[in-house]
Predict the 3D structure of the following.
Amino acid sequence: MAGAFDFVPAIAALPLLAFVVSLFAGQYMPKRGAEAGILATAGSLVLSIWTALTVAGITGSATSYNENLYTWVAGVADGAVTLRLGVLVDPLTALMLVIVSLIALLVHVFSLGYMNDEGETGLPRYYAGLGLFTASMLAFVFSNNLLMAFMFFELVGLCSYLLIGFWFREDGPPSAAKKAFLVTRFGDYFFLIGVVGVFATFGTGLFAPITEGGTVVAESFPQMAEHALEDGESFFGYSAQTWITILGMLVLGGVVGKSAQFPLHTWLPDAMEGPTPVSALIHAATMVAAGVYLVARMYGFYLLSPTALAVIALIGGFTALFAATMGVVKQELKQVLAYSTISQYGYMMLALGSGGYVAAVFHLTTHAIFKALLFLGAGSVIIAMHHNENMWDMGGLKDRMPVTYWTFLSGSLALAGIVPFAGFWSKDEVLFEALIHGFGSTGTLGTMFLVAYAMGLLAVFFTGFYTFRMVYLTFHGDARTDVARDPEPVGWNVKGPLSVLGIGAATVGLINMKPIADLTGLHIDFLHKWLLGPEEGGWPALTSTGLHHYEELMHNVAGIDPAYPLGETTTLLVSALVSLSLALAGVLVARSLYNEPEPVEHTDKLGGAKTLLMHNYYQDEYQVWLAQGVTVPLARAADKFDQGVVDGVVNGISSVSLFTGSRFRRIQSGVVTNYAALMTLSLVLLLVVFVVLGGGV
Amino acid sequence: MVVDIAGFQVADWVALVPSLILGVTAMLLFIVDSIEPRPGTSSNTVLAGLSTLGALGAFLVAGYFLVLGVGQPRGTGAVDLFNGQLVVDGMSLFFVVIVGSVTALVTLASYDYLEGQEYQAEYYGLVIMAATGMSLMASANSLATIFVSLELSSLPSYALVAFLKKNRGSVEGGLKYLLVGALSSSVLVYGISLVYAASGSLQLNAVADALAGGSSVPVGILGVGIIMVLLGFAFKTASVPFHFWAPEAYEGAPAPVSAFLSSASKAAGFVVAFRVFLTAFPEVGGLAGGDPMVDWVTAVTVLAVVTMTVGNFAAATQEKVKRMLAYSSVGHAGYALIGLAALNAPDQGFVLGASMMHLLVYGFMNTGAFLFIALTEHWGIGRTFQDFNGLSTQAPLACAAMTVFLFSLAGLPIGGGFISKLYLLAATAQAGSWLLGAALIVNSALSLFYYSRVVKAMWIEDPSADLEVDSYPSSLYAAVVIAAFVTFALLPAFGLLSPSAFDAASVLFG
Amino acid sequence: MAIQTQYFLLLSAAVFCIGVYGILTRRNALVFLMSVELMLNAANINLVAFSFHHGNLTGQVFSLFTMALAAAEVAIGIGIVLVLYRNFEDIDVTKAATMRW
Amino acid sequence: MPVAGPIEALLAVTLVGALAVFLAPDEWAGKLATAISLVPVAVSAWMYTAFDGAGNALLGGDLAFESTIGWVQLGRYELAYHVGLDGISMPLLLLTTVLTTLALVSSWTPIDERQSQFYGLMLLMEASLIGVFSALDFFMWLVFWEAVLIPMYFLIGVWGGPRRKYAAIKFFVYTNVATLIMFVGFMALVFGLGDSISTFDMPEIAQALRAGGNLSAVAGIQPANLSLIAFTLMFAGFAVKVPVFPVHTWLPDAHVEAPTPVSVMLAGVLLKMGTYALLRFNFTMLREVAEANAAIIVAFGVLSIIYGAMLALAQQDLKRIVAYSSISSMGYVIVGLVAFTPHGFGGATFQMISHGLISGLMFMTVGVIYNETHTRMVGDISGIADRMPWAVGIFVAAAFGYMGLPFMAGFAAEYLIFQGAFASSVIPAAPLVTGVAMFGIVIVAGYLLWAMQRTLFGEYSLATDYDVSRAPVHDVAPLVVLLALVIVLGVRPGLVYQMIQDAVNPLLDTALQGGVALW
């Protein structure tokens, strides 16, 4: 009988269908295509949950699935790789599928309120975009090889471009869309080289080996890399270690681009030009997560290269801090959220880099929930404020839109990492992992981790601060504008998703309360178990994507080991307390500064730092300069060169020959005596050359 | 002497029938004219018809002989007449075909062109006379016969160029042609006399034998003689440095005459050059191996390069279409000279054959081009490129034909010129004479430029307001269209004549 | 005793050169033609002399042909010179230079 | 062997059709030509399904629809009419017929004078192109190869833009010179083969050359140097057609001046002639030379990619942008060819097809916009997405196709080329070189996104005061068809890639003789 796994492709196919339907039939539907999207995503959610249950072993025996379903390009000659599309389902996939389809569904519903009720035009295009995005994102999630992942990685990029630029009549969105695609494309350039490199090196891009009846029929590239490392092979003149690092870094380029990590983070704040539901779905919960997910997906490969791990950790830690500081001074609701998103993904990278696989996935999950919530909340506020996003024009919305307020608050607490909200547990685990591995790991790697940890820790404070600065400015105090005094009410289709997510943000942390688990000895760290899998056999043995395997690699190859300077429990508590207290400190500072009827700008207190922060550390400036100050002049120069020199030569030749011709014709003077003279002359010449000199005489 | 032609045992002079036909036609023309009561009033139709028939007859018979294998190894073998003073072989027949066909086209076209002109009988008579001379040049196998037949073709040509007595251009052209011709013929004769001095004989094979045996007089004299003979032929083929007459003569002469001279006369000049240098002077030129006594091969190479370059570069910057064609015909003389220049190739017959085929195709495409000019002169539209602007709107058929001629001259695959020119290029590659190859490439590119100037004027430019084509002269049109058709047909049907060309060529190399 | 052949050669060369000189210097069409005659006769001298030298008659016979043709050439020449005069009111060969380049 | 095969049918239909259209009145010349051109489409589609060729045409593979007729005996050499298809030429033939029909439809709007001549010439060009891709006798092939120039000259010269005369003659002379140079190179090879060759049959020559040891000295040039010289001359000749930097400058002028349908044919098919010839001659017949000089060749390829893209970045004219980016895209083909790997050859050939479709699509879309706005300057147009949504939508799709969006033909082609080049054992420092070449995909995104943002989106404004309205159906229909093809090939490259691979793999079979490097 057909199990859930046979329907996995349908998870992506349904939204794809919705895309087609709403694109071509959207304008004939009452909701302009939203129906198709909602039905499709609901279907995807159901199927995803079914898949998850199957993976959990509740419905069906097989708990993992990895098959090639479609041969995209068959390489017939030997040495010609064959490129396939396939499906890989393991706990990680199942979890991500559920998250994506859930958020997608909620965002579709929310869009009814945000787009339809606001009387937007071009909705079929909008819903088609959402549909296509959901489809590609889900397909990316269950890709079983690197190339397929890349292909859908690019597709989600396209959808992000289309949706950011949805309001194409204005000048901002198209430009932001261009920037978003271009910056991510720059990252994807390296990613693509990485993909090509992986296929050229290992002949396959499989994340996990394909097995039939227990025997491996197609090896996965992390496995092959592992073996190559053991056998001390060398590729393209490099030692396996170096080459793996190179490939890892190349793929990382795509990750940094998509997950908006430093230095390719600049596109995300601009991307807020897009409709808010889009920001919630694409630029907070799912697409931006694709990068992190990719690292997690091929974690077995990255664990082979300590260098890559260190880089990941540092990028993550730095981005977390760096983005958080920028979030502190932003005026607009969505801008704050954008920078917090960047910062939060920094945490996930930090976790992955420092061997906190579970922590990363955990934070990915919780963040998806509470950040989507915050964006949707922001969306509802924006509806109420007639699309004015400036927090200084708001205030006192608490009493006028309670549902939004309370849900938003729950999200904020989660983001700030206040116990017991979701964010606390995940962020705490991230930092904890970084800490213990920092102490435990050998050599520079450990110090790197500690540096990254320090930055991450510091970021906690800022997170708390900007989050509640946002909350107080938006909802507390007195209304500062007429609109804020009489905001537009929002409908069920807004409140519904908010409530769902609000509850989620408060509770989802419960799936992995590792501290409690360790303290009480109760085995309630479900996510950990979920990703750990059985010790022997089961899906980890088949897919080699289980935590056990990763921990072995961490220990054997990367040399990452935990160490508890204060003993296990104490360290745990201390780190939890430290991060919590920092978060609270941030919240309190924000409260003292902004929780008053008429809050005022305090940014001047920052002095010189203010301008720096306002200009986002001049990141955009130098990137724009690279594009327009360097590349464009270079192109102009090339054009000049082409017109002047390369083409000049061509035209030169023709004009020279024509000039020669105009001289040659002068020989024909028209006077017959001259002709006679020239004839005689040439006769003499020939005689001299060919008879006298020719040795005739 | 008796030869076997198509199974009939006939006297060997029968092989000369093509030339005889032309000669007889010339006589007939004079008779027809003289039996007319008032001289110079004979009916155009009779004269044109008669001469066209004569030329056609010569063309057909020569072609038929070619097919039968007369004078060729597979047939009778070369037919020697009058103790080898004349010889009928593949090469001579091949060139009679060229001369005959060109003459036929020209006389056909002249019917309309000469409308209302006086002295038409003389015109046709002179044309056929000259044609007879050219056909004899193809068979001439002794310096004596060569000189006589060459003059027989030249003298009428002088008169023909100056035929329009009241037209300054025509007269001036005639004068220059005459003076340059006289000078060249004296150079030629002097050269012949020196060759005779060195060899003691005028019959080509005898000359070759004598020279092979080594001569009593210093080789320098022979060298001077050879160079002078070469230049004498350069005049006939309108090659540098004896080409100076060509632009003016072609421009001034009545267009059909220009066509006649630039195609048939040039071809005749080449056949003589080929025969003399390859029959009489191969050893001297070092073709039989060993280093040459007189390196005429290199001399010809230089002449070829200079000729094609001067011709094409000068043509590129002309304002008058007819003069452009005149210069381009000088350029093509340079191409054809490759047949005598690229001879240090393993397969010499290949080289010479390519050159012969080029002359054949050239006969049609160049004649056609000049006849188109005749058409425009008939219409009385101007001579410059601008005057041709938008002509296609008035006379699409003629313009299409002209386009075929021009592109074929430029070596594009719309006519036989494509294959023949590429074969010349191939010949240079085979001989490894990169100088010739490079010159050919450069010049042919340049020629494409200026030929397409005419095409551009006719098809792309907009017509000027007063462009008006009133009449569509049937015989001119017929001639142009036939020429165009043959030019085009020679692309797919190149093989009809090329085997005889290559065979005839390789025969000369024994 | 016979005169050695090379003297004839020198003579003919001299005559030829005189003819060339005439062509290059004289503008009168008729003189031009006369100079050509000189050159042709230079050739004839060679032919006759070497026919004697080689002891065959070919050269002498050919020289007769040459003379005949020279005459014919002049005949045509005079005709053209006539029309030249009609059109240009002059027989200066350098005057007729309407067509050039 | 059958003489009247489908290829003959194609040639006959197009030639006779051209004649008929020449004589047809202007009013319905367009419709007539389109109708006639449907026959080749149908025939070639049937040929595709009935295709039974195997292996490489030049290396003794089984040819599909082969037929031979003796043509001319020239000296020692026998020229023949010899046509046939293998996995390389079949897709190109299909591309030609399909693109011609679409181009014909797309010319209904822009071509408003001397229609019968225009459509007649288009059909003539189709005939010549069919000949180019199917002829297997060198001289026969050369006839078609050069015959393409004639209609092209008129099409640009008569119906082109303001500087059309300059562009036409430039294209004409430039490519003609290239042909002559290439011809000398090839003939040098033929003579080098001496008596072992008595025809210009390309398979025969190719096999003789690959067998090795058949070359003898020509005019004192030793075989090794001879093959090097021949390779250089032929490469130079074909590089002009491709075009490869630095002999590309005829292309932008020709493209900008040519009317849209002609640009479509020029970019879509004519450029492919160059790479097709490179593949057939240089890389098939003189493999060892190519491998010995891989470094130089790949340098040309990479240079074209980056340089072309940079130039596109500097352009203001939409057509010029696409023109220069064509140079860039064709650079990928060079890189793929010189890699000497299965996917390298395959990808390069596949890129010919996909670029044919995508660049055609781009030019057509630009043309459709031009029909409405009468300008192609980026600065003049803004925010027309509102006025002509479908055309703009397709423009965006086409642009992303050009950027190599997955599941569109461009991505498949470029990825395969990269895959092939990366693993190449011939290209020095293959991974690095490939990486550099791949940077093109970033630049292309740069200028296309910039152009789209400026022209399609933002506030609506138009420098030329025309009333922009939705494009007529017969303008958009060809776009849709092309887009569909692009996507189909992107999702299922195997549709043509199978036969391509089957035809290119033999190129890698034989052992090498060791060629002479230029330095």
Remarks:
- Chain A has 29 helices and six strands.
- Strands of chain A lie at 65-73, 83-89, 210-212, 215-218, 234-235, 238-239.
- The two ends of chain A are 107 Å apart (CA to CA).
